[in-house]
Structures are given as structure tokens and as C-alpha cells.
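Model the whole thing, not chain by chain.
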Amino acid sequence: MSYKVKSTIMSLVIGILLMAAYGIYAAGKVNSGAASMDDLKFWASSMLLFIGIGVAATIVMHIILSILLSIGKAIRQTVETGKTDDKAIERSLQLDMVEDEMDKLISLKSMRVGYAIGGLGFIAALISLVMGSPSGVMLNIMFGSFFAGSLIESLAQLVYYRRGIKNS
Amino acid sequence: MASQYTISNNIRKLRFFAGEMTQQQLAEKAGASRQTIIAIEAGKYSPSLELAFRIADAFGVGINEVFSREVTAD
């Protein structure tokens, strides 16, 4: 399993956990009466908070993944050769992280899938507003669809890495 | 309607004749990731012309010795 696949799986897990956490948090606030669906300031601040947590979690995830990979490579090298060469480990890690043309193509194709989901969610959010739903509902549909778009983008990446991709 | 091509390759064979060159070594020589070399070798990814030339250069052969195409439909 390559670094890209591991990183995508971890992003997917973080995304699912964040989405679940946001759902629980939002439902709890609405059910307890602490927030109404018309309170746009509350929803905007909650969404910003979870976006911030998501960014921080992704950065921490990349750092942890790099550390774990380095440890794994050091152990393997020590077992195979009896010594540890820091420069060789660093070089090997850099090679794992190289983004070449296939990675870029997979990234572009899966991003297209993610944007389609985000776009559909945006239309659904507008429809909900036309149907008379509170503006908080519209905002949550948009937020949820962008979240879902990002998750499906990660899933599409995994599928492309597994099944392969054609240049067409 | 344009013909459909199926691209196949001899990378496994060429690696064998290049002293069992590993996929990692080929990836380093061609400037691609190991994952991409694995995908190309398995026929799951058709590389760009530039990468195809770089792979051929890594073996010191012509591109037509690495890749071949078969017309599958008209």
C-alpha cells in the first residue's frame, strides 16, 4: 500500500469522524433548544469551528503518518542490514511522496466527482430555500454536501488507485 | 469510428533482462512513483508519451520494445 493510498484512507476516516461529530453536535444543540435553524450566526461559527478542526486534524495526520512510515522503514532497514541510515530513510520517504502524472490524473478525476456532489448539494440547498425551509437548513445541506463531496472524492481516489485509470 | 487500441508492455521481461531491476529502481530512473510503475506493468494505466520514453530510456531500448498496441475494434 503506497503513501498516497494510506494518506487517502486516513483523510477518509478523519472526514467520516468529523461529519459524525458535527451531526451529533448540531442535533444535540437543536434538540436541546440551544440553537434554532434560523440562527445563522450559530451555524456559521459551528461550521467554521469544524472546518478548522478538519484542517488541524489533516495536518496532524500527515505528521503522524510520516513518523510512522519513518519508524517502519527504520525497523525494516535494521532487520535487513543491521544498521540504520537516516539519509536513506529520508530519501525513501521522499520517493514515496513523489506526486507523478498518474497521481495528478487520479486527483483531477476524483475532484470532478467531488465537485459534482458539491454542486448537486448546492442545488438541493437552493431548492430547500424555495420550498420555504429555514436558512439554517440550506446552510447545513450545503455544508453536508461539500463534506460528502470530499468523502466521495477520497473514495473515488481509492477506487482509481485500485482499478487503475486510463488517459481518456 | 476510430480504432480502439489495447496497450500492452514488456516491462516485466525488460526488468528481468536488466538484472532483475526492481520496480523501485525503475521508478527512480524514470522519475515516477513505484505505484505508477506497478499500474503500468499491470496494464492499469497508460503512461504519457514522455513517461513512456523515460521508461524506454531507463532500459536503453526503443519505445516500441517496451510498449506495443493491438487494435481491438473498428
